[in-house]
Amino acid sequence: MKLPAGGTYLSRIVINHERGAHSGLEQPTVLLATPVSDRQGRALGVVVINVGLNGTFALLAADLPKEFQLFPANGQGDFLIYPDRSKTFGFDRGRRVLVQDEFAATRDLVDGKADQVLIEAKEGRYVEAPMVAAFIGRRVQTASDESALILGLAQPLAAVLDRADKLGAATLQIVIGFCLACVLLAVPLARAVTRPINSMSVAVQRFADQHRAEGLPLERRVEIGVLACSFNRMQDQIRQQLAELRQSRRGLEHLALMFIDLDKFKPINDSLGHAVGDLLLEEIAGRVRKAIRDSDTAARIGGDEFVAARRAIQQSEDAMTVAEKVRLAILEPFAVGDRSVAVSASIGIALYPDDGADMLELSQHADEAMYRAKQQRRDTVAFYQAAVEASPTT
Q: What is the pTM (predicted TM-score) of this model?
C-alpha cells in the first residue's frame, strides 16, 4: 500500500507453501503486487498475483542443447535450478546451496563488484569433466525483496576446445547475449502487473515470443532417430491447432497434451555413461514417434523429458489409449550396443478445453499431472484433476 499509484512490487522467488485452492502448492513461485488507487491517487486496495515459475524455467531450458547446463540463482547466490534437484531452493529446507561456493569467481556478482564473469571450472565435481561457464548478474529494477538475479550457462570444456578459435569466440558471445536477454526480460514481465489481471497471460506469452526471437530456428523437422523439433515450434503448432478448434468444431473435439518423463533415467546415465544414455534417448524418441500418428506433434524439452500432442480427441479414454501405447512402447527393453536396458515413463495428460484455454495453462497442468503420476507409483498415466492438484498432499 506504500507504493505510488502504478508502482509494482516483486517478492523473492520461493517455494509456495501457501495452503489454498490453487495449483502452485510446493512449486517455485513469485508474488507480483500493485496498489489500486482512485482518481485522486488514494490507495483503495492492492492486487496480488501468485505466478508459478515452472513454465518460465521450462522455457529457459527448452531449446538448449543437452550438453549445456543452466544455473539461475537469486541475489544471495541460492540456486533456483541445478542438475541435482535436491540442491535447488536449499534455503527452503534449512540449508544454503550457493553459486559462489560452486563457482568462486561468481562472488563478485553476488557482492555487486562485477556484472558478468567467465569461468573455467576444473575443481570439485568438475575435476573429471571441466566446464566453461558464463554468468551475468542484474539488479531488479522495481520495488522488491529480491535484490538481483544471476543467470549462468555452462558447457563442457572439451566441446569448446573441439571448435575452431573463431567459432569458439562466437559461441561465447552468443551465450553471454542469451543470458543477458533472459535476465532483462524479467523487468517488463514484472511491470506488466500494472495492467488488468487478465493481461498477465499476455505478458508471459510475450516473454515466450521474445525468447524465441533470439535467433533460435523455428523451421525444424522431427527426425525418426531423435526428436530434434524445438519446443517453441511445437508450441506454435499447438497454438494454431487450438485456434482452429475455437473457430470451427467448438465443443466437439479436444486436444490432448502429454508430458512424458523417464523414471530413474539418471542412474542409468551415470552407471553406463553419457554415450549409452544418448543412444537410449534416441531409441526412446524413435519409439515415441512410432507410437503416435504422423499428424500428431512431439518434441523433446529436456534431458529425459518429452512432450506429445494429439488433436481429434473425442473423449478422455482416447487420450489414455494413446498415452498407454507410448508408455508400453518405452517399457519394452532396449538393445543399446551389447546391453539390454529397461526404463519406464510417467505421463501426465491435460485436455483442451477442459484443463486450459491456452498453451501455457495446458503445459502447467500436464506437468502437474505428470508429477502426480510419479508420486503415485511411476510407470503410469495420470490426468490433470483440478481438485487434486489444488489440495495439499495427504
A: 0.42
Listed in order, strand segments (DSSP E) in the chain are 9-10, 14-15, 28-37, 43-52, 69-74, 116-121, 131-139, 143-144, 148-156, 254-263, 297-300, 305-313, 334-336, 339-341, 344-352, 381-383
Residue 270 vs residue 83, higher pLDDT? 270
**CA torsion sign, 97 to 152 to 115 to 210?**
negative
pLDDT for the residue numbered 365: 93
Spacing of C-alpha 210 from chain mean position: 16
* Grid coordinates given for 19: 495452503
Residue 155 burial (CB count, 10 A): 19
Cell 523433446 belongs to residue: 300
Whether 200 has a pLDDT exceeding 50, the answer reads no
Q: Can you list the domains of the chain with their CATH numbers?
A: 54-212 (3.30.450.20), 231-390 (3.30.70.270)
Mean pLDDT of 334-360: 88
Sheet of strand 131-139, all strands in order from the earlier edge strand to the far edge:
69-74, 148-156, 131-139, 116-121
Q: Are 230 and 300 in contact (CB under 8 A)?
A: no
Tell me the pLDDT tens digit for each residue of 5-40.
Answer: 777 887 888 887 776 646 667 778 877 788 887 777
Question: Rounded to an integer, what distance in angstroms lies between the CA atom of residue 78 and that of residue 94?
Answer: 12
For residues 382 and 376, give the distance between their C-alpha atoms in angstroms, rounded to a whole number: 9
Averaged pLDDT for residues 316-337: 91
Expressed in angstroms, the distance from the first to the final Cα of the chain is: 36
